[in-house]
Amino acid sequence: MHRRSGRRLSAALVALTCLGAPAWAQEARLIGARTLRVDHPQWGGLSGVEMAGDGASLVAVSDRGILFRATVTRDESGQITGLTLLTTDELTGRDGQRGPWAARDSEGLAMRADGTLFISFEGDHRVARYIGGGASEPLPPHPDFARLQENASLEALAVDAEGTLYALPERSGETTRPFPVFRYRNGAWDGDLSLPREGDFLAVGADFDDRGRFYLLERDFSLFFGFATRIRRFEITESGLGRGDVLLQTRAGEHSNLEGLSLWRDAAGRLVASMVSDDNFSPLLPTQVVEYYLAE
Q1: What is the average per-residue pLDDT within 240-268?
Q2: Which terminal CB of the chain, N or C, has fewer other CB atoms within 10 Å?
Q3: Helix, strand and coil percent figures for the chain, each rounded to 5
Q4: What is the pLDDT of residue 1?
Q5: Beta bridge partners of 168
C-alpha cells in the first residue's frame, strides 16, 4: 500500500534500526533478508512477487503500476546474493494508456501454471489479466468491489492449480468482520468464502503451495516499533476455510514493510516463502527480499 506519512516512515526506520528480535513462530526458519539495490529510476514500491520454481528468477509489481522481471543469484546455502533486472514495463490498459494515477496502484500478483499473470489494483478496484508489452485487460468486477475501502482494497491475489483466482482486500471494514475472499472461475466472481480476521493484522499477500494449501501474508504496523509480519495457512474444503495455522509471526521491527508472497520448493524439497518489501519510494525504508523455510 502507498503510505504518505513521513512521521510513520521515520518511526518505522527507528524501529528497524533499534529492534532485532527474532521471529517467535516455531514453524518457520529464516533463510535470509537481502536488501536489493537496482540502478533504475522506477525501482521500488514492490507489492507483489512471483518467484520461479527454482528460485533463480522473479516477477514483481510495484504500487506505481510497474512490472519487473529479474534473475536472482544465490550462494550455496540458498541465500540471495544479488538481482539483475531484465525488463521493466509500465502497466497500461489494452489501449496502451496508463490511466489516472489512482488506477495504477498495482498490489497483488499471481501466476497461473501456464505462465499467465494476473494483477490486482486497489486504487481502481479491479483484477486484470496481463497480455504482454505492459498491457492488461480487466476481468469483469464483482459487485462488492465498488464498496471496498479506498487505499485498502484488493491487496492479496493468488491462483490455484485449476486456475481459480482468489482475491482479498487489505481491510474487511471492521476489526471483527472476516476478510471476504472473492473467487474467480468460469468467467465470474463469487463471494462465498471468507477468512477470520485475528488481531490487528491486515491482508497484504497470498499464494498457494504445490499441495493446494492457501497462504495469507498479513502485516501489522506500530507507530513506535515498525512492521510485524504473519503467515497463516488454510485448507480449502467444501465447507470453506477454517481458522488457519500460524506458521510465522515476527515481532514488530524485525523486517520492513513485507507485502508480496510467493511459495516454492528448493532443490532439497523444502518449502520456501519469499516476500518482498514495499519501501514506499522512501530513503527511510529498504527494498528487500525476505525468505523463510516453512514447516509442512
Answers
A1: 94
A2: C
A3: 5, 50, 45
A4: 53
A5: 156
- Three cell numbers, residue 244: 488457519
**Which residues fall within 8 angstroms of residue 67, CB to CB, at 6 or more apart?**
59, 60, 61, 87, 88, 89, 90, 91, 106, 117, 119, 130, 134
Q: How far is CA 59 from CA 48, 197, 207, 284, in A?
A: 8, 29, 14, 24
The closest of 163, 70, 69 to 116, measured between CA atoms, is 163
Mean pLDDT of 66-93: 96
Q: What is the pLDDT of residues 202-215, one digit of tens each?
A: 999 999 999 999 99
Arithmetic mean of pLDDT, 245-270: 96
61 and 67 Cβ atoms separated by less than 8 Å: yes
Contact 205, 290 (CB under 8 A): no
Query: Which residues 6+ apart lie within 8 Å of 222 measured at CB?
Result: 11, 15, 228, 252
